[in-house]
Recover the amino acids of this structure.
């Protein structure tokens, strides 16, 4: 059965591209949200298998904080995506032991592999 | 030596070389009631100065013409040596002018030798002592005041120096800051310029790459892509020209964007009348660019589908800012969207983009009014959420 994915991405083009691409791999995109608050709310209600989380997003909760809550409290796997691969961001993300950490522009085959393995 | 209450007798030193004058003085003082006087007599300046060294003299009765000194010099030497002791100059009828001069120079009084009125002499001595005492007190007060003024002046000048130093440092800091700001501004301008150029280059490369492809559908897709890139690069172009390098005037941007789209589509449709009504307000780059993408989609949709070549087209676009929110309205005089179209299931990528950008990215509302013509109405709150945390 296909993995159920929640996409958190505030750049609509990127979010739409992911929403179109991911179903082609047999996964189901539950929703596309653009901020951390919605990410936590939808993840809790819809219980996806994986949350694909952009770190640098709009709103008062950034992707790292939202990811931490989704991993720690909801026990849901998270794949982080970011345009910034500075040590601080990378280390903070890896401390949360996510399913994956992808730097934009995304390596699509790597994303596919991570999603199918989830 | 000079106290307010004089408990002992008043010590008077008479310096007089004329024995007759000296005797007259002594006699006139001796006969006074209530005057306790301890009078000593010397006959030369040298002897007088020696006696003064021993102390106990409250006032000096001084003849100016002595064997060892004459004229004003006699007074000057005694006064220089003992400025605190009052001097009464004894003078003859003939040199009153000289006596007055000594008073101007600090003698307490002068008396004519020929008229030794005891009462007058005694009063003159007492007043002389008292005036000298007051003078001394005034001198002390003045000295004290001068010390205070000096102290304050030096405190003030120290404070002034500190302020001057602080001021110098602040000025240096401000200059450094200004230089750094100028540098950043140059960098930002350069960055905006390069971003714009790079985007335009990308658009050109895409155009070149697909120039030879005969497929009409493909050429249209490429042109759509180029229009979207253009909508984005225009923001950077305006940013490059803006004053603050962080905001762009919506009115300028929308005007440039719509005219640029019209030029691109020239020849593919008939004449189009533009009705733009945009309030004068500025937004962040992110918000402006995102609004631009919506407008770019709507305008190019109109230009592609709404206007047949033979009929003059019209576009109505208003973007109003009021209170906390903004409202963007868009319509054309074309046939409009089919009535049965379900907005939740829009097949065209352009309209899907418009809806997602408006609702998801700008967190606004999108409404399509279909009576009589199709009108898109977008309402946005503030774009504050567009600022990244």
């Amino acid at each position: 059965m296909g993995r159920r994915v929640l996409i958190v991405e505030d750049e609509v083009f990127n979010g739409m591209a992911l929403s179109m691409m991911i179903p082609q791999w047999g996964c189901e995109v539950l929703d596309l949200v653009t901020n951390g608050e919605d990410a936590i709310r939808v993840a809790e209600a819809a219980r996806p298998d994986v949350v694909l989380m952009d770190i640098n997003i709009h709103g008062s909760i950034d992707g790292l904080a939202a990811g931490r809550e989704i991993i720690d409290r909801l026990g849901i796997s998270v794949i982080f995506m970011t345009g910034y691969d500075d040590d601080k961001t990378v280390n903070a993300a890896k401390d949360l032991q996510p399913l994956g950490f992808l730097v934009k522009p995304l390596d699509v085959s790597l994303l596919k592999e991570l999603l199918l393995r989830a | 030596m000079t106290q307010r209450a004089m408990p002992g007798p008043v010590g008077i030193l008479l310096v007089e070389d004329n024995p007759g004058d000296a005797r007259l003085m002594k006699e006139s003082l001796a006969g006074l009631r209530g005057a306790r006087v301890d009078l000593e007599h010397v006959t030369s300046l040298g002897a007088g100065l020696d006696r003064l060294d021993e102390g106990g003299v409250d006032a000096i009765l001084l003849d100016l013409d002595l064997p060892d000194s004459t004229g004003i010099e006699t007074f000057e030497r005694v006064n220089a040596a003992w400025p605190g002791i009052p001097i009464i100059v004894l003078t003859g009828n003939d040199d009153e002018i000289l006596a007055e001069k000594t008073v101007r120079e600090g003698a307490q009084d002068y008396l004519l030798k020929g008229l030794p009125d005891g009462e007058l002499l005694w009063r003159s001595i007492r007043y002389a002592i008292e005036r000298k005492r007051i003078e001394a007190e005034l001198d002390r007060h003045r000295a004290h005041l001068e010390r205070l003024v000096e102290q304050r002046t030096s405190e003030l000048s120290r404070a002034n120096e500190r302020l001057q130093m602080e001021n110098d440092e602040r000025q240096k800091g401000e200059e450094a800051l200004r230089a750094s700001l100028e540098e950043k501004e140059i960098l930002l301008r350069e960055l905006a310029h390069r971003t714009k150029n790079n985007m335009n280059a990308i658009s050109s490369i895409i155009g070149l790459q697909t120039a030879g492809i005969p497929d009409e559908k493909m050429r249209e897709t490429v042109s759509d892509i180029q229009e979207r890139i253009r909508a984005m690069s225009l923001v950077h172009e305006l940013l490059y020209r803006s004053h603050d390098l962080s905001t762009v005037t919506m009115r300028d941007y929308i005007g440039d964007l719509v005219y640029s789209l019209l030029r691109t589509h020239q020849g593919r449709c008939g004449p189009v009348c533009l009705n733009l009504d945009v309030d004068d307000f500025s937004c962040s780059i992110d918000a402006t660019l995102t609004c631009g993408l919506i407008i770019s989609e709507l305008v190019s949709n109109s230009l592609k589908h709404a206007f047949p070549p033979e009929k003059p087209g019209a576009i109505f676009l208003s973007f109003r800012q009021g209170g906390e929110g903004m409202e963007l309205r868009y319509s054309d005089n074309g046939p409009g969207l089919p009535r049965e179209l379900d907005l939740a299931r829009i097949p065209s990528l352009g309209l899907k983009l418009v809806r997602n950008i408006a609702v998801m990215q700008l967190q606004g509302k999108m409404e399509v009014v279909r009576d009589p013509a199709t009108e898109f109405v977008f309402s946005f709150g503030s774009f504050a959420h567009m600022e990244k945390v």
